[in-house]
Structures are given as structure tokens and as C-alpha cells.
Amino acid sequence: MIQIDLTGKVAVVTGASQGLGETTARLLHRAGATVVVNYVEMGTNQANAQRIVAELGERAVAIEADVRSPERVEAMFDQAVRAFGGVDIVVNNAGIIRDRTVKKMSPAEWQQVIDTNLTGVFNVCKAASERLRENGRIVNLASIAGVVGFFGQANYAAAKAGVIALTKVLSRELARKKITVNAVAPGVVLTEMGKSIPEEVRATMLANIPLARFGEPQEISNAILFLSSDLSAYITGQTIHVNGGWIG
Q1: Where are the alpha helices (DSSP H) in 33-179?
Q2: N or C: less crowded end of the chain, CB within 10 Å?
Q3: Quick count: other Cβ atoms within 10 Å of Cβ 5?
Q4: Tell me, what DSSP letter sits at residue 103?
């Protein structure tokens, strides 16, 4: 039996206090990894992160860091290195949406999404590139929106398209350290973010999916797990679409 075993690996998952980030952190932990559950201090995020760590038990710690801040991101990685001796896997999951047509979108709404969903990924990748051990893994969360360009998502689509391009560049720059950099581009996934899409819009989206259903967080996390493992050692610079056949 082929089994993914991440025993001895240390993984940092951003935005891991809920949704896809939480599912991914739990799956990597089940595979044997020590997991840093990153969160930003707002709402119930801190309480959620602490609950997750308590439920996981050993090999898990919650660390607060706003990915928009290079200094706080570097401090998070330094704390992880001090606690566990190094970092092997980074999953860039933190993200927000501020959907609005370009005509109605404020400069602040544009900038908030770009700062978190694109600049935040850059900040994490930059800090990680200096601290990841050889044969490390970076998995960035892109989106089908970055390829299709959905109505009312200029900021989100632009950020996710940027993540795909950043992934390609970093895969070349970090290859000398045998660090692979890939992206996972989910379709519509039934997290809290996915459920916030208006029902009539979701119905239109569903009609475009050959498998005739939306994705589950676990199904996206499975792809992240694969890209975090030794089974993906010769895959880098790629965007893996997990969308039920919507696009490929």
C-alpha cells in the first residue's frame, strides 16, 4: 500500500482557523506532520485556532500573524523554527473576498483583496524561501476565478491570477534548493466563503460543472496533501485545477 507519510515534517498553513485552511491543517497533521495553525487576530479566529490545536494535541501550535505584514510573517516563521527546528511545507491559504463590479468597487476594496490574497502570498513565500529546508514544498491557493474571471470579482480574480504567475516564477528561483512550488486552483467549494455566493449565481455555476456538484474542502486538501509529499517531487511550477471538470 502506498501511503503519504509526513512524519518529521513541519507545515505552516496560513488562514488555518476555519474553512479550507482548517481542513488542510487537520489532514497534514493526520499524515504525521507537525502543524502551525496560522490565524489573524479578528473575530473568532484566535479562539478557533486554539480549539483546533487543542483537538489535534501534540505536534500543533497556533501562531498569530497577519500575512499583509512582512515583519509579522517573518516572526511567525522564526517562532516555528525555534519551536520545531525548521519548516518543510508552506500552504498559502489565507484569503478574503470583497466582491463588487469594477464600477462600484472602491479603491479600498481593491487594495484589501490584493494586499491579502497576493501580497500576503508574496510575503509568506519570501520569508519561507529563506527558512525552508531542502526538498521543501510551497503550495499556493489560486482559484478558478483567476482563470475564468467571474463577474464582480476583478480584485479577487486579479490576485489569484497573480498567484499563478508568482508560483511559476518561484518554482524556477527555488529549484536550486530542491524546493517545489505549485498552486491548487479550486472551483466553487462549500466553505463559508463559497456559501456566501448568492443562490442564483451558484445555480448558474453548477450548470458548468460536468460532475454536477460543488467541491468539498477535503477534496481540495487531498490535492494539497499530494503536492506536500514526496510523491510530487518532480512536479513544480504547476497549477492543479480541482473543479469537477469545469475547466482544465
Answers
A1: 45-56, 70-84, 107-114, 120-129, 145-148, 154-173
A2: N
A3: 12
A4: T
Q: Which residue has the cell 491557493?
A: 141
pTM for the predicted model, two decimal places: 0.94
β-pairing, 10-13 vs 239-242, is: unpaired
Q: For residue range 183-194, what is the model confidence (pLDDT) as tens digits?
A: 999 998 877 766
| Residue reference for cell 479566529 | 45
Q: Domains (ranges, CATH) in the chain?
A: 10-242 (3.40.50.720)
Torsion angle, alpha carbons of 6, 9, 15, 19, to 10: 10
> Hey, which residues does 140 pair with through a beta bridge?
92, 183
CA nearest neighbour of 235 among 174, 197, 181, 188? 181
In the structure grid, which three cell numbers stand for residue 102, read together? 469594477
pLDDT tens figures, 117-148: 999 999 999 999 999 999 999 999 999 999 99
Q: Where in the sequence numbering do the catalytic residues fall?
A: 156
Look at residue 132 and give its three-state secondary structure.
strand
